[in-house]
Amino acid sequence: MTKKELSEKMASTFDVQKSEADKMVSFVFDELTNALVAGDEVSIAGFGKFSVADRAAREGINPSSGEKIQIAATKVAKFKVAKQLKDSVAKS
Questions:
Q1: CA–CA separation, 81 vs 83, rounded Å?
Q2: Cα separation of 23 and 48, whole Å?
Q3: What is the residue-wise DSSP string for 13-71?
Q4: pLDDT tens-digit readout, 46-89
Q5: Is residue 60 helix, strand or coil?
Q6: What domains can be seen in the chain, in order of their start residue?
Q7: Rounded Cα–Cα distance for residues 4 and 25 (Å)
Q8: CA distance 40 to 80
Q9: CB-based contacts of 1, cutoff 8 Å, min separation 6
Q10: What pTM was computed for the model?
Q11: Which has the closest alpha carbon to 50: 40, 63, 38, 62?
Q12: Residues 6 or more apart in contact with residue 87 via CB below 8 angstroms
């Protein structure tokens, strides 16, 4: 499902214009992003938990040349699925 498809489904389910549904979906994703950028954790009951983790610098290998390269430290978004969602997917 894409963001557009989610907006369209929301518009038909709640009988609102597609443009309004798109604004609502965008708002939710923007707020999730803002919280993660601020270093906060986002927990949605029954769905899962989004968090930010630090990934340490490490040495890697360039696959085309085989030479060793340094990979810089970075922050990554992580998602841990809730048990309720995990169980729902497993039953399908």
A1: 7
A2: 23
A3: HHT--HHHHHHHHHHHHHHHHHHHHTT--EEETTTEEEEEEEE--EEEE-TTT--EEEE
A4: 999 999 999 999 999 999 999 999 999 999 999 999 999 999 99
A5: strand
A6: 3-91 (4.10.520.10)
A7: 9
A8: 15
A9: 9
A10: 0.82
A11: 40
A12: none
